[in-house]
Amino acid sequence: MKEQEIRGLVADVKDGALSRRSFMQKMMAVGISAPLASQILVWNDVAMAQPADDYKPTKAGGAGALKILLWQAPTLLNPHFASGTKDQIASRIFYEPLAGWDEDGNLIPQLAAEIPSKENGGLAADGKSVTWKLKKDVKWHDGKPLTADDAVFTWEYAADPATAAYTTGSYKDIKVEKVDDHTIKVIFKEPTPFWADAFVGVAGMIIPKHHFGEYKGAKSREAPANLKPVGTGPYKFADFKPGDILTGTRNENYHVKNKPAFDTVEAKGGGDAVSAARAVLQTGEYDYAWNLQVEDEVLKRMEAGGRGRVLTAPAGDIEFIILNTTDPWTEVDGERSSVKTKHPTLTDPAVRQAINLLIDRESIQKFIYGRGGTATASFTNEPKRFKSEKLKYEFNVDKANKILDDAGWKKGSDGIREKDGKKLKYVYQTSINAPRQKTQAIIKQACQRAGIDLELKSVTASVFFSSDVANPDTYTKLYCDIEMYTTTQTQPDTGLFLNQCVSWEICNKENKWLGRNVSRYSDPEADKAYNAAKTELDPAKRAALLIKVNEIFCEANILLPILSRPRVVAAANNLKPQTSGWDCDTWNLASWYRT
Amino acid sequence: MATYLLRRLLIAIPSLLGISVILFTILALAPGDPFSEMATNPNVPPEVREAIRASFGLNDPIFVRYLRWLSNMAHGDWGFSFASRINVDQLILQRVPTTLFVVGSSQILALCIALPVGIYAATRPYSVFDQIANTLAFVGFSLPTFFTGLLFILLFSVTLDWFPFVYRSDVAATGWRWYWEMFRQAIMPIMVLGLFQAASYTRYVRSAVLDVIRLDYVTTARAKGLSERKVTLRHITRNALIPVVTLVALQMPAVFGGAIVTEQIFRIPGIGSLLIDAILANDTPVIMAVTFVFSCLVVMFNLIADLLYGWLDPRISFG
């Protein structure tokens, strides 16, 4: 999708010819995340949607206990140490950022009085600074007022490398200044189109200076508040047993009127996803369970119990296949799959194109993932403005056969195609996970019909996703011809996500295979577009550039996307939660209520 | 006796050191990385990942890490968990009460079933009662706890809706209600563990009693005209229980260790589930501490069992 087309769509939204939602969907289709799509509209003076708050209760409290089941148990409550979603969800009960992302990728103010924009002077024209106004009259749970000092301190705390904060990436390259008691200015080194990173969403939770002030840097581990949080959130801390249970009580002085609805909140951890779904859908012991990576069929059977329902929220996670164009079976300078080598057969674009035609995405969605996945041909899908319209998927064995015939790959006596003595035989690896093994089987079958032989390999997830330098089976080593996994888009911005497609991020021995580009494929055009997007302030132009990066990799059939995976949760029938694929599940816990 | 105890304790030190070296090396060589979650997270730059690894001392050679661990341990510092960044001893202590309650009750339940059933079955070998008890014991220890656990959940939670299947360490209730709620949530895991344990104990008790029941002194006791009840309880059971007591003593470390699978199914926050979570998160300090505590307990209870032998059977001396 070209810049002009995006502009055309924006004009349509302005005229009312195109709804906001369908604009988002069109953008998602070209791989542009929803938050970025809504920023395009803001930039072009279409106000960010102020989603009608459908919060019904007319008074705070009174709804009893809210029971959340996290099958991976939270282990710590400092949002800047939160290593996984489970910890982010737990800390978000007590802490809040300046703003959070809703389901459609709109930025919703939480501790900020308003969202910075060009009109209110929050966004500098040169893109080098953002001014946030903090809400007044917000009190910490211990009664002290929230001021700009706390926000500035949060930056100092997270940016300090000695603190070893997991959120440090969002803070280390910025400067934060206090303008007055309730205003801060975030200064970037370079024009930054995606400014809503620091102080926003999962990385943005503000921590109180008067509790953490003494524990910045190397002493960060000793802070008592790491386990006894004092935040501004809707619930106050009551008790926490790491890896087990977390309880909170209603914050009577919460800064939003009539919220929150529940008197107590409890987050219990442990167990597995299937039994978590059962506790909500079948026995009704719990109100909400998260991250249900369970086969849809199983969930449907449980839903028949009638106590709860399954909800999905669009997110940027993508299940995809990498075709390795380097040679995984030859060692050069102590590493296999080195960019100095060439794969004997997968470097032929015709072979890659044929394999892409042999993935029956619709069946994979229909029979394996159900509501847990949407077939796609684009690497970036959500927010919609980043999804490529150009990319289409197709399942066509005859066409694949024809392409291979035309390219000179002839079937041998064993039914496997070969050319110049090189056979189309591949090792296809992924992590151990029932749906993945079923997907492998479906693709293997189709490939057989086209004369391609796949050897299936599956690796334990804890090994596959580790960054163990000594282990040959990690996903970044890519010691195989074909690999499949899900890459998560933790940030609402597609920019960071697409660093998987740039040449300087290629995994190799030198960077201990910690690079982000696992496929090892690079294209100077993609590098150029990615770099241009980094500082391009006009979101429409930027989206066009990022779409281009996405299309280069998908059209070359290096990355073969299979499914875009939404967040799947279960909620009791009488619970009205607020989910979002762009933020953590408890991002707006204050607005949850019982019907 | 005192010298024997001292000698045994001194022998225990090198064996514990050896165990710790082996555990530490295996953990250091095992695949996996406590920060793997970060590796897939594009927001954490590689430099930061490296800095965190360095600050946790993960880049030092294994023997340096081991010596550091050993000297800290000698000072009573067990290290801290990478996942929750709190001290390991604190984490373990939090789990001890629940573990002792659930696994301890199940052991008591197991003994309460196994002793009477085993003894009664042995006094009437090959009777109908003995046959039934034997069959049930066979079934009991052939069914793994993860299977019976799921079966119980399906029957009592999903179908009948009697008991909850998620165990909560702090029940939100007071007074009698608290006891009632505690009972309701603990009954299923205790039954699952207790019945499994009872099945194997029953067979053990039965064979131990059978060994004793035909000895001459029992016949003598009967010839003296003692009642059958007295013979069974005073003369037979007491002697038959010597091997059973050692068996139970050696089971004690397992009581502390919890029941890993059952804890996972019922979400019981015991030491077993702490260990599993730590293994899944590659949280090496916690794995190291928990496994080391287990080894200490095994060494200690072995010693206690040896001492018990001497106390129960005066023929064994500690020369």
UniProtKB/TrEMBL annotation, chain B:
Gene3D superfamilies in UniProt: MetI-like
Annotated signal peptide: none
Domain ABC transmembrane type-1 intervals: 96-305
GO biological processes: transmembrane transport
Origin superkingdom: Bacteria
Keywords noted in UniProt: Cell membrane, Membrane, Transmembrane, Transmembrane helix, Transport
Protein family according to the UniProt entry: Belongs to the binding-protein-dependent transport system permease family.
Protein name: ABC transporter permease
